[in-house]
Amino acid sequence: MHGYFQLVITDNGTGIRVFPPTNGDEALDVNVVRDYLEDRKIQYDVVVLNEAVTKAEDDVVIISEAKILPEREGVKFDVSKDHMTVTAYFFPPTEGAELLTEKEIMDTLAYRKYSYGIQTDNIHTFFEHREYCKEILICQGKPVKQGQNAKVEYHFNTNLRAKPTLKEDGSVDYFNLNLINNVNEGDLLATLHKEVLGEPGINIYGENIKPAAVKTTFIKYGKNTVLSEDKMTLKAEKSGHVTLKEGKVTVSDVLTLENVDVATGNIDYEGSVVVKGVVASNFSVKAGGNIVVKGIVEGATLEAGSDIILECGAKAGGNIIAGGNVVTKFIENATITAKGSITSECILHSNVSSGTEVNVTGKRGFIAGGKVIAADKVQAKILGSEMGANTIIDVGSDPQLKVRLKELQKNMALSQKNIESIKPTIDGFSKMLKAGAKFSPEQVASVKKLIDMNKTLTESIENDAEEYTQLMEKLQEAKEAEVIVEGTAYPGTTVNIGELSMIVKKPVQYSRFVVKEGDVRLAPI
């Protein structure tokens, strides 16, 4: 039994008897007694009261010379903020005073409109075996059971941040990147886990509480894949390389070439491309999957739906565009754009843009001249040069994300304009048809085309709006973007984080550039 107290009216004034706890239960809290007395405007001596509660002896201790009127057995109800529980806290009557009845409590609950989940057994137990100064559960609501959003589980590596490993000598291992997702015909690629609806709850007032809405989704699939009849699983239709591009699963073949030059011409291939030699100047390779080039890329254009791996490097005006990662030995006087990460041993006088992070690793590990942009992080040993090469590092926003948002805005505006242009014709046709007008088969066919077009445009707007909302949520996510220098950042280097900027005026070593207190500041690694 919890520790509790009882007021006693004596010839010498108002006293208190404090009962110690039994069976290891909680002792009486003096603040409970003080609240009780102050609620009833009963005067007391603070010091005497504290001492009486602390000692918890059966003796009556006078806390006030004033005599009070007898106090009935009392109760205090407490309703949780979410209106899901009501607890009762009973106080004993003044010695010899009147007790509450079970009916009084039930009537009080009804008066207060506590109607759901009344714990009649707990109430009845109290009146059979009274326990004071202890919380007793009186009402319990039914909690909301939240549902689960639908999700697609992918059975292959979808990570856009795969990185090569460093060898013991400090060089980079470009041969074991694990970026090729090889699959065999019939392999399971994706599984849809359907949404689970939640169950409403009920609070102590009997009011229904709705669960949060759940989101639906579906498996998006591309070439060389087979969706099951129930649309719950996706398998490979043929062996090849599986990729996830813009939420769509695609399996591509691998085309292997000795070189890309005058003997082959430009390459435009739906699958992945492996070039054992070089890609000659002014030639281009386009691939729906990966591009792997084992020789040099000089003044050539490469565009891949997934990763681009250059075992030597890119220089002299090369233009590289990847839907995934770019991994290369070096980048010199080239332009590289990747939705994923970019990894190189050095970047010299180039324009480099990554949707995630740029890592310049290996023995040299420098970025000198040009501009390097990354959504999350840039990490290098050296930024700039002793000669003061103008080097710009920009982190904190995904440049491709903003481009796509503008595209979606433009698409939705154009679709809406087209809908508005055909709507009067459709409405007019509908009114004339209701009025009994007759139309030729050609007129009916023409209007049917407009109706189909309206449906297509509406669906397009809905899809674009959904993607726009998702991208805006991603854009608004708080990112702790940073620039890490493992060696030295030289004067002439500009570091931009979001809208903030710092120009390095004297050498900075072994530091991180971060946003702190509304400015770009240095922090230890």
How would you summarize this macromolecular structure in one to three sentences?
With 525 residues, the protein is an alpha/beta fold. Among the domains are: 4-140, no CATH class; 151-165 and 179-243, no CATH class; 400-476. It contains six helices and 42 strands.
Describe this structure in words.
The chain has 525 residues and is an alpha/beta fold. Among the domains are: 4-140, no CATH class; 151-165 and 179-243, no CATH class; 400-476. 21% of the residues lie in helices and 36% in strands. It contains 6 helices and 42 strands. The strands form 7 sheets. It has a 24-stranded mixed sheet that branches. It has a 4-stranded antiparallel sheet with strand order 7-11-16-15, with no helix packed on it. β39 (493-497) and β40 form a beta hairpin. It is extended, with a radius of gyration of 37 Å. The two termini are 56 Å apart. The model has no long low-confidence stretch (mean pLDDT 89).
